[in-house]
Fold this sequence. Notes:
binds ligand C2E; 18 helices; alpha/beta; 19% strand; binds magnesium ion
Amino acid sequence: xxxxxxxxxxxxxxxxxxxxxxxxxxxxxxxxxxxxxxxxxxxxxxxxxxxxxxxxxxxxxxxxxxxxxxxxxxxxxxxxxxxxxxxxxxxxxxxxxxxxxxxxxxxxxxxxxxxxxxxxxxxxxxxxxxxxxxxxxxxxxxxxxxxxxxxxxxxxxxxxxxxxxxxxxxxxxxxxxxxxxxxxxxxxxxxxxxxxxxxxxxxxxxxxxxxxxxxxxxxxxxxxxxxxxxxxxxxxxxxxxxxxxxxxxxxxxxxxxxxxxxxxxxxxxxxxxxxxxxxxxxxxxxxxxxxxxxxxxxxxxxxxxxxxxxxxxxxxxxxxxxxxxxxxxxxxxxxxxxxxxxxxxxxxxxxxxxxxxxxxxxxxxxxxxxxxxxxxxxxxxxxxxxxxxxxxxxxxxxxxxxxxxxxxxxxxxxxxxxx
Length: 419
Ligand code: C2E
Ligand code: MG
Ligand code: MG
């Protein structure tokens, strides 16, 4: 897709094609939800979901960002108020703000009016400002931040460390949080520079009395490291991806991460009729377009007493249609299928059913998608040809909330990294 034109974006706004995804932020020590970041997407009628990196800049250049930003702010405040009314605690909603919006002298009043319109307490709103934005227009933005803080609205400095930090002004600016970007988090434990940067930023932030948020946490190891180093909050696909408001609410109502170990998000509680959870069989949806392969898988699974196949789908779209109402625990997902491919299906499933464990079945260890699938939230990735030997064990592993990756795939991934 070529980048969208201003005309297309203007029409998209008029047609209400923008939607918000939400990603919880969690307290690293306790797993308690401490906030939600609102992230805008364009639900394109032909292309599906289009991410903000494809259109925010164009909106800024074309003078559309104020209108888009107003819509995002209004919708996010409405959603937070609705969640509050539904009894959902867990801190403020965070809205990303373009520097251009902040430089508008009327912006502070816009925020005040939006909060009033939504009936939302200012303490339940936080604005995220990228550090580079500050650099471009420090004086104007500084006054706006002070005025917002006086209202009670939180302000976080996004992507901290990627611009030229105004270290001297950090305290006087009155920001309440620093967000450490994914580029410093993804190398933790592997790249000594990332470890050093994290330690320095944590020391600096804590010295100044600020809360630190690690963004883009994708593995248990990263989370453990952040906990050891005393990072306050974390956000990332390992904890919960950015998903629809409904999916976030379901995730929270089923206990988020506080009640269950990572990856086994939101398993249903044991049935009221006394059925013991441990005794219930693992319910599996098998998704594969290849009839013979699917039947073979079902036959293998039928031999395990603790596993029950509750559904079969012949392509990704059928799986997405089935998922919302299906009582299942694990989805076995083929990587290449007609109608909706594996990756697209995976995303759709995570959006609709963040409680499901997802085990991906692939043909080759060389599959270039292994990392993509794992990054996008697959809990396991294994090879079809080994299915007879591995399948039942892999299924039990992801159902227990642990990650499973075939050794051959791991070898290949490590080889690629070294090569
Ligand atoms: P950001 O504010 O730093 O948002 C974090 C980005 O990291 C989001 O991407 C989020 O989906 C992604 N992310 C979260 N966890 C993980 C993970 O574990 N792994 C990986 N690889 N990525 C993860 P997204 O939604 O594409 O947003 C990109 C940027 O677009 C945001 O960066 C923000 O600067 C901007 N943006 C998003 N929504 C808005 C908005 O409403 N207004 C404005 N002005 N900018 C926005
Ligand atoms: Mg942000
Ligand atoms: Mg960020």
